[in-house]
Design a protein that fits this description.
Layout (H helix, E strand, L loop, with lengths): L2 H4 L2 E3 L1 H9 L3 E4 L2 H6 L4 H15 L3 E8 L2 E4 L3 H9 L4 E3 L4 H7 L3 E3 L1 H11 L3 E3 L10 H4 L4 H8 L3 E3 L9 H10 L5 E2 L19 E2 L3 H13 L8
Parallel strand pairs: 1-4, 2-3, 2-7, 5-6, 7-8, 9-10
Antiparallel strand pairs: 3-4, 3-6
Length: 229
């Protein structure tokens, strides 16, 4: 991370302390808080997810854009702000400069969160479902920016597959073309958000967390940029 990029980041106290102590950090997106669920369920769910991560020995770092800064780790008041406001921008790679420069309030998508996590030195990101290739994409070219980010940004993305409304087969073809390995855990098939089985197999099955860590570390040690999901 360059000093210039670092100047846009603000770390919460708990995240800064965990990073200084060498404790594991897990990035979380904020779009689901601002745009995915109604208030107050959105804020309650965000706090529950953070509590689960803390209970497993890591520090959660929910990411959002507030007052012209990339916030790495949110306070309760900041979670409430995201959950209540109806003026929250949805922020992917395209939108980051505009929202930051304008000092607006922004909730990060999968792609946006990956970029911010990488800037902050966080290598693991947990989300629900990634975006993908939409049905009818051969005519509409409607393909989520998440997929390009998975190919270019080196953050491990732990997720429940791709959203079920998408063309799962074409999504997996896109990931294969761009060299993004798809791993499954405790099952052979790729998930589809709320559904464990999308009808398509994952590239590899690794049930052990240590094996998964060795896989991604080997990928990055070889200079192969990008994520796995």
């Amino acid at each position: 991370m360059t000093n210039l990029a670092h100047s846009w980041l603000s770390f919460s106290g708990p995240v800064a302390a965990a990073q200084s102590a060498g404790r594991p950090l897990v990035a979380l997106e904020s779009t689901i808080i601002a745009h995915g669920m109604p208030y107050p369920e959105n804020v309650r769910t965000a706090r529950e997810v953070e509590a689960v991560i803390r209970g497993l020995g890591a520090e959660p770092a929910t990411i959002a854009l507030i007052d012209g800064r990339i916030r790495i780790g949110l306070s309760n008041d900041e979670l409430e702000l995201l959950g209540r406001s109806d003026q929250v921008h949805k922020v992917s790679r395209r939108d980051l400069p505009a929202v930051l420069a304008g000092g607006g309030l922004g909730a990060t998508t999968v792609a946006g969160t990956m970029i911010c996590a990488a800037l902050a030195g966080i290598e693991v990101f947990v989300t629900g479902g990634i975006g993908g290739v939409h049905r009818g994409a051969p005519e509409s070219f409607d393909i989520s920016a998440d997929l390009q980010e998975l190919a270019k940004t080196s953050v491990a993305v732990v997720c429940a597959g791709a959203k079920s409304i998408l063309d799962i087969g074409l999504t997996l073809e896109y990931l294969e073309t761009h060299g993004v390995p798809v791993l499954s855990c405790e099952q052979d098939n790729f998930a589809a958000f709320y559904t464990r089985d999308s009808g398509f197999r994952a590239d590899f099955r690794l049930d052990d967390a240590a094996e998964q860590a060795r896989f991604i570390r080997t990928k990055w040690d070889l200079g192969l940029v990008g994520a796995w999901c």
